Amino acid sequence: MEVFMFRAIAHRLYLFCGYAAGFFLAAIAVATLWQIVARQMGRAVETTELSGFCLAASTFLALAYTFVNGGHVRVGIVPQLFSGGISRGFEIWCCAIGILITGYAAYHMTLFTLETYRFGELSPGMMAIPLWIPQSAVAFGLGVMCIGIIEQAGLVLSGRAADYETNIDSTAE
Predict the structure, then answer these.
(1) Number of structural domains, the chain?
(2) Distance between CA atoms of 60 and 70, rounded to whole angstroms?
(3) Which residue range or ranges hold the Tripartite ATP-independent periplasmic transporters DctQ component domain (predicted)?
(4) In 2, 133, 140, 170, which residue has its Cα 20 to 30 A from 107's Cα atom?
């Protein structure tokens, strides 16, 4: 029962991050439109830095949602070459490597974000945005991705098929 609750909460978190990623993509479009309209009216508006921050947030927040729903590019040729036990072992090994890499990245990005916050660093552009704000989206996205890989590794360890094996977007096939 606890595992089901964890999975339900985790999938809500992935969905939230997916919607947040979509929001930041829309924010890029709005910022670009704002810049175009302002230039047509004779005003110079610089949104490149803001758009870059939105792109970073969108990219990293979308990681877990895309992974769990089978949207990441996977090379499945090696597991297909072997039978059940070896294929499952290879899948577990891949998940373990993914957990180590994303966990390491999330940990160090979080430390970096906290350091940036403590020093009060600002972006070098005209807007002077505190850098911890966009960095926190990157750190959070990496942390959620690590949770997603852990959850999917648990499915593989229990002998069930991982959610990422089924791509919900049929256009990828």
Answers:
(1) 1
(2) 16
(3) 28-153
(4) 2
Does residue 76 lie in a domain region?
A: no
Residue ranges making up the domain that contains 137: 1-70+82-172
DSSP 72: S
Token pair for 6: 């964890």
Does 75 reside within a domain? no
What is the rounded (10 degree) CA torsion for 104, 106, 108, 112?
170
Instruction: Judge whether residue 163 has pLDDT over 60.
Output: yes
Is residue 95 a part of any domain in this protein? yes
Q: What is the pLDDT of residues 90-125, one digit of tens each?
A: 889 989 999 999 999 999 999 999 999 999 999 988
Q: Assess contact for 157 and 75: CB atoms under 8 A.
A: no
State how far the Cα of 89 lies from the Cα of 34, in Å rounded to an integer. Answer: 51
